[in-house]
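Deliverable D4.2, example record:
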Amino acid sequence: MKSGTKRVEALARGLAILKAVCARPGASLHELHGSTGVAKATLLRSLRTLQDGGFISRRLADGGYLPLPISQDGARWLPFTEAAGPALEALSRSIAWPTDVGIREGASMLVLESNRRLSSIRVNRQALGARPHMLWSAMGRAYLAFCSSDEREEIFSALRASSAPEDRAARNRRRIERLVEETRKRGYGVRDTRYGVLDLGRPVSAIAVPVRRGERVLACLNCVWLRDVMDEAEVVARYLAPLRAAADNIAQHFNPGV
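Output generated by the structure prediction step:
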């Protein structure tokens, strides 16, 4: 026997949209339109309402919608993405090259957010979820140089125990200590030229700075560019200051209690 109480259609529609986001984390507006059949204008309003209510978030990197929390890790990463998004969006107006934010995940970095979608310059737009190497990437080197000595030794121990060829350099203690010291003196990490990253057959490089609160390194922020367009000295002269300002902004707005 059916109840005489009427359905709240707007609520039912919103729950259906939330269910669609949960079924396909990272779905785009177009994909959600296809799976729900809701008109795009209505869908946008509903998604915004779900965002404001803390039920979903939208990635800056690709515009995909995510349920909150996606998982235990998703809840842990949310403070970083929420703090990084506005800073990366603002940074895209002062730095033409794309920038990414990554956190430490085990013995590597993990790219959580990026403004590559907003950049007018195409440099490998599929950065989200990438795991830059600790010893070879700009992010990893910046993290190693400015994290605590205990954390650094924990990372090096994991790398030394690894059988992966790219991790063998961690067994040369003198070499890695020199690398850390050089990076600390420089104030930013630089991607090793042997770290073979190409985009459309062209060599890609990066610099990175730590996002710090006090002595703690929360994350790292990089700037990625094509080496045949600009050299490191020019990138540093033009973009290091705004990159550091953005890192300070992210640290200021990072709220681990979210």
